[in-house]
Structure formats: structure tokens, C-alpha cells
């Protein structure tokens, strides 16, 4: 059986990078897949439409693009939702809300799901797959579950390294879904000069200054790496399948996650 959302679900807020007001509506979907809809252009949530971006995940088709889709896609994936139409009513970016995926996960879960005809597609890692680029490394191994082992290297920003290992399921995800988008004090000028993070505030971003949270506290132990795992799940959702495999990740982000997914496509002959 495949799963879609049971009812319409609304989210509204500010876009992290655009700084513009954003509104989206999730609709039950009779067709197949997760699809965004903006100005009558349908953009599938699929790797073929992912742009090579480092600050968030961007999907583009023809003249339309949708930014910062990773937290929403992460929540949809863990909730087992295969099919959904996401109407982008206002703005070009998914609202950042509180900077975590928890508001998406919680509201969608409470709204309920609906089963529909069709088989859930599965991607099972059959052999070891390795992606390396300088200090970034991602390895995939066969596994009956979806397991992620992630090392966040904080050396560059004078924060402690963080490591987490988790089996991806609803119970575990709810425990770490409150981990927030984070940024570092030393990056602020760069972001401003490049017209990024225009919607960022202490309400939706965890700022790290001199190795510690700025004007707040950590919500969770190892909050930085836990948010990296949220992002990885959201990016990997662009493969469009339920995943079975173990992933060992060092220092990766959105850009390298995208290249790793292309590596998986190559190694599996496009899943054939």
C-alpha cells in the first residue's frame, strides 16, 4: 500500500533565505510521488530536479524553483508518505518555522494519513558504495533497516565534534526532530553579502558564537549533528523510494549529499 495525507494541511511563515512570507498547502494526492506546485508548474521531489546548492536544498523545473525543501521532505519520508501535492501558494521557499522539522512532523502526523492502492517502492543497498571528496566521505552498506551514522566536524568553527547513530523510524525521529538549523557567528557577514539568510532570526536559527549557543541553549545533546541527520534524510528522500541501507557519513552537507545520490544512481543503474 502507498500512503498520502488524509486532509489538506497548511503551513505559513518566513523563508529562511528569501526573507519573504511563505505559505504552502499539502494536499491528498491520487497520483504518484511527492510533487511541488508553483504557478501551475509541477516540480517533482526527485534528484533530477535538485540544483547544486550548499545552503539548503533547491528544486527547479523550467522557470520555477522551490527552496529549502529538506525539512518538510524529511518529515514526510519518516511518516511514510509516498504521495502528496505541495502547493506553494506564496513565496518561493518552504517556511523555516522554528528551524527544525518538528512542526512539520507533528502537524502532519496529527492530521492523519490515508492508504491507497499501489506498491511502496524500495531501494535496498546491495553492495558497498563509497563517495569521497576531500575531507567528505559517505559510505553505504547493505542493511535490513535505514541506519545513519554521522560525524559532524566542528574543528573549523571551534566547536566539539559530534557523532550520532540512529535507526530511522518514527519514534527515533520524533526524539531528534527538534534539532534546529544552525549557523556560526563568523559566517554572518558572508551570508549578508550573498543575500542569504535574510529571514534568519534567533527564533528560527541556532547561532553558535565562540563555541556556544548565542542567547539560547541547546535543545538536545548533539543538536548540530542531529540536525545534519534531519537534512540527510530530507535530501535522500529525493531518491523517491523507501530506503534500506546503512550510511556512514563524515562532514557532508546538501551539496555532497546530492553528489552521493547521483553516485547511488550510477552504482545501481538508475535502480534497475
UniProtKB/TrEMBL annotation:
User: Where do the TM regions start and end?
Assistant: none
Q: Name one GO molecular function term.
A: metal ion binding
Q: From the UniProt record, give the pathway where this protein acts.
A: Glycolipid biosynthesis; lipid IV(A) biosynthesis; lipid IV(A) from (3R)-3-hydroxytetradecanoyl-[acyl-carrier-protein] and UDP-N-acetyl-alpha-D-glucosamine: step 2/6
Lineage: superkingdom: Bacteria
GO BP terms in the entry: lipid A biosynthetic process
EC number(s) on file:
3.5.1.108
Q: Is Isomerase given among the entry's keywords?
A: no
Under InterPro entries, the record lists: Ribosomal_Su5_D2-typ_SF, UDP-acyl_GlcNac_deAcase, UDP-acyl_GlcNac_deAcase_C, UDP-acyl_N-AcGlcN_deAcase_N
Which chemical reaction does it catalyze? a UDP-3-O-[(3R)-3-hydroxyacyl]-N-acetyl-alpha-D-glucosamine + H2O = a UDP-3-O-[(3R)-3-hydroxyacyl]-alpha-D-glucosamine + acetate
Q: Which GO terms describe its cellular component?
A: membrane
| One family name in Pfam for this protein | LpxC
Q: Provide the cofactor list for this protein.
A: Zn(2+)
Q: Name the Gene3D superfamilies for this protein.
A: lpxc deacetylase, domain 1, lpxc deacetylase, domain 2
Q: Is the keyword Lipid biosynthesis assigned to this protein? A: yes
> What are the alphabetically sorted keywords of the record?
Hydrolase, Lipid A biosynthesis, Lipid biosynthesis, Lipid metabolism, Metal-binding, Zinc
Report the enzyme's class at the first EC level: hydrolase
Briefly, what is this protein's role?
Answer: Catalyzes the hydrolysis of UDP-3-O-myristoyl-N-acetylglucosamine to form UDP-3-O-myristoylglucosamine and acetate, the committed step in lipid A biosynthesis.
What is the name of the protein in this document?
A: UDP-3-O-acyl-N-acetylglucosamine deacetylase
Species source reads Candidatus Mcinerneyibacterium aminivorans
Gene this chain is encoded by: lpxC
Amino acid at each position: 500500500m502507498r500512503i498520502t495525507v488524509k486532509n489538506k494541511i497548511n503551513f505559513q511563515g518566513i523563508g529562511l533565505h528569501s526573507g519573504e512570507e511563505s505559505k504552502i498547502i499539502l494536499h491528498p494526492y491520487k497520483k504518484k510521488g511527492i510533487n511541488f506546485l508553483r504557478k501551475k508548474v509541477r516540480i517533482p521531489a526527485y534528484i533530477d530536479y535538485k540544483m547544486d546548492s550548499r545552503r539548503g536544498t533547491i528544486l527547479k523545473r523550467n522557470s520555477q524553483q522551490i527552496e529549502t525543501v529538506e525539512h518538510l521532505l524529511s518529515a514526510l519520508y519518516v511518516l511514510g508518505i509516498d504521495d502528496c501535492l505541495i502547493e506553494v501558494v506564496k513565496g518561493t521557499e518552504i517556511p523555516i518555522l522554528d528551524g527544525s522539522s518538528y512542526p512539520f512532523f507533528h502537524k502532519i502526523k496529527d492530521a492523519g494519513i490515508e492508504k491507497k492502492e499501489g506498491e511502496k517502492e524500495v531501494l535496498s543497498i546491495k553492495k558497498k558504495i563509497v563517495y569521497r571528496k576531500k575531507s567528505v566521505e559517505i559510505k553505504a552498506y547493505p542493511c535490513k533497516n535505514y541506519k545513519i551514522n554521522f560525524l559532524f566536524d566542528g574543528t573549523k568553527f571551534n566547536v566539539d565534534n559530534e557523532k550520532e547513530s540512529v535507526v530511522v523510524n518514527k519514534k527515533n525521529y520524533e526524539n531528534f526532530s527538534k534539532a534546529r538549523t544552525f549557523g556560526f557567528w563568523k559566517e554572518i557577514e558572508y551570508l549578508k553579502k550573498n543575500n542569504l539568510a535574510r529571514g534568519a532570526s534567533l527564533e528560527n536559527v541556532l547561532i553558535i558564537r565562540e563555541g556556544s549557543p548565542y542567547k539560547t541553549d541547546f535543545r538536545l545533546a548533539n543538536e548540530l549533528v542531529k540536525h545534519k541527520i534531519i537534512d540527510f534524510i530530507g535530501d535522500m528522500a529525493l531518491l523517491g523510494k523507501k530506503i534500506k541501507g546503512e550510511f556512514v557519513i563524515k562532514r557532508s552537507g546538501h551539496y555532497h549529499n546530492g553528489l552521493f545520490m547521483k553516485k547511488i544512481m550510477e552504482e545501481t543503474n538508475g535502480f534497475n
